[in-house]
Amino acid sequence: MAQVKNKAKEKSNNIIPFIPEGDFYFTKGVEAFQNRKFNIAVKWMKKAIEAKPNDPLYQCQMSVIYTEIGAYHAANQLLTNVLQSTEYTDCYYLIANNYAHLGLLNDAEKYVNLYLEKEPNGEFREDAIALLDLIDIADVDDEDDDFELEDEDELLIYQETAFYHMENMEWEKALPVIEKMITLFPEYMLAKHDYSQALFFLGRKEEAVQIELDILKQNPNTLYSHMNLALFYHELNEQAEFEKHMHSLLNVYPIHEQQKLRIAVTLARTARYQDAYLRFISLSKGIVKNHPSYYRWYSTTAFQVGEPEKALLLWEEGCKQHPILSKEEGPWG
Fold first, then answer.
1. Would you say the pTM of this structure is higher than 0.85?
2. Where do the TPR repeats start and stop (predicted)?
């Protein structure tokens, strides 16, 4: 018996204890991130940073995870800390990207220009130039919207009325409001996209598709046309055309929350639930909770990706915020 104990003791003395270092935690965090398991990725990356608090790569990777889940302020706080201790120039682009998501376009422009100044041929050069173009477009859109809302109070009334009917899928009520809006404000393009959607769901499908195709000929990058056509072709079971427009959507990450929501809803309505779920979790709830479509399609998406409890919570909250939802079947319908 003593001999057995001695052998066991001898064996235990030969065991080398495994003490994970920062690189191990970092690798596990990256693997979880690549598998879209963001909560797990955050936990591993926090351990990596604790093990190597001065490693800028770890903190930058953590900031990328925060960006992916919509924690833009937390991401920028990490990146700012990195810049205080080292000249890790990629941080400037990453900060600019987060500011753009927050709608802080002046700050985004400042940091993206800093990045291009310091890294004219850097890894993110093309992304940085694309972001500048996006900021320029957003600035123009914002100026146009401000002008219309300031000088045309009547437009706001039509917008809100159309918004209410569209969000509640009351197509027959929405159509005459949108037609009047187009007559009075022919330069207001969003009304034309709402018009085609109302037409489609009222049965005038060919006409609706043609409207969007005509708009797309004039401007091939019109996001709303790609969203509507993806939805239309999905409903028409025209898979090849659907995939073409869906591909355009999957590569777009807008700045404004309303556009981000509209893409998420389009993905959900076309049964791209995994993609839709990632878009929904990145939304700023405080901005989009006034949209019934947020609760209607987020709860449906959660149910479809295997989270029935979350789906139920979203639906119950949505019914409290928007009582009209209680007349619908809910996500399990």
1. no
2. 22-55
